[in-house]
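Tokens as discussed.
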């Protein structure tokens, strides 16, 4: 299957597929400073929790390169300022904080500031490699959940574009397909930014996996008619008790799944687990610009003068979740105990 590489380090620059131009155009942008990376994250040219975690790590490596000092205190101060700014680019996905903190921890351990830029760049490469490896393991762990001849529904985009490679929920779908299973895939449009219609649909077409695009509000009908065998989505942050922040509309999918006895799974690397938050209501929810709701592409669709809210994520309580597929295995209730174990065994997560 073709490998989609959304993030690459090339000749001292961060090269990204501009996800706002997909699916009509595949445009690469080259970023030269950490401020440019922050801007790309805010504008969602790069998006998806693991992908923005990786981009944030490269942004820290750029900040280290551009700090231009041999004094350790000055160097660390420059990195702290950068980490704070990068950390605020988007608030919900914990992977940004996780990536930035990991880079900062390493920077503090380096005595020779002259070597720090190279060492931090190596660390960013390692974070990228580890994320792709984690995704492949998530695929292996989860592929048995989609039975041959069945069907699966996914929301938003959780594929290679949203990660360092391969994907989380979409990685599970891909792994099951690669195993030889054949099943029906439903991808929701994912209003208002249309990550499903633009990005998941594009990835599935690239991979050659036949799939059907549906509007978000059709999930109830499809599930009530028994057309959906299971639902698998990604996550932007998982609280210690297993509550999951993910793309707006995920909670509705989970509630409809429970009502219709459809198993609902979350797939995410352990770097998405935040053990410092005991429950989902503590997860910050990003509110984005009203124009994303008021327009379709460049066409205004909402009546001028109407008030608009655009929360980009929602919280699915752990009671709706049949299991969280991580690179350390499928974590099930009791989540407090079992997520803490997965974080200890895995590549990370934010520890309490
Ligand atoms: O606003 P986005 O497009 O960054 O939101 C992405 C999602 O909600 C994904 O489901 C999540 O980040 C997991 S990506 C593997």
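Sequence:
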């Amino acid at each position: 299957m073709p490998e989609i590489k959304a993030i690459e380090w090339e000749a001292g620059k961060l090269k990204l597929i501009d996800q706002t131009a997909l699916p009509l155009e595949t445009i690469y942008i080259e970023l030269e400073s950490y401020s440019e990376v922050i801007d790309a994250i805010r504008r969602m040219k790069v998006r998806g929790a693991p992908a923005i975690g990786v981009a944030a790590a490269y942004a820290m490596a750029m900040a280290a390169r551009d700090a231009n000092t041999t004094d350790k205190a000055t160097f660390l101060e420059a990195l702290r300022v950068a980490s704070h700014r990068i950390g605020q680019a988007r608030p919900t996905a914990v992977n940004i904080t996780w990536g930035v903190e990991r880079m900062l921890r390493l920077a503090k351990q380096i005595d020779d500031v002259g070597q720090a830029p190279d060492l931090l760049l190596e660390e960013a490469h390692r974070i990228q490699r580890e994320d792709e490896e984690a995704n492949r393991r998530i695929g292996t762990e989860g592929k048995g959940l989609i039975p041959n001849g069945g069907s699966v529904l996914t929301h938003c985009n959780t594929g290679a574009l949203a990660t360092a490679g391969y994907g989380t929920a979409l990685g599970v779908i891909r792994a099951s397909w690669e195993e030889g299973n054949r099943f029906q895939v439903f991808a929701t449009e994912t209003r208002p930014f249309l990550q499903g219609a633009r990005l998941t649909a594009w990835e599935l077409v690239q991979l050659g996996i036949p799939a059907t695009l549906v509007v978000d509000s059709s999930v109830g009908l499809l599930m009530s008619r028994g057309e959906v065998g299971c639902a698998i989505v990604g996550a932007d942050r998982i609280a210690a008790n297993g509550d999951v922040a993910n793309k707006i509309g995920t909670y509705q999918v989970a509630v409809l799944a429970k009502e219709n006895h459809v198993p609902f799974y979350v797939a995410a690397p352990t770097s998405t687990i935040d053990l410092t938050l005991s429950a989902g209501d503590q997860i910050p929810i990003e509110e984005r610009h009203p124009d994303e709701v008021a327009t379709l592409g460049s066409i205004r669709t909402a009546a001028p003068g109407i008030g608009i809210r655009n929360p980009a994520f929602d919280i699915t309580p752990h009671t709706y979740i049949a299991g969280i597929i991580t690179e350390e295995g499928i974590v099930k209730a009791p989540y407090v105990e079992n997520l803490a174990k997965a974080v200890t065994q895995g590549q990370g997560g934010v520890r309490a």
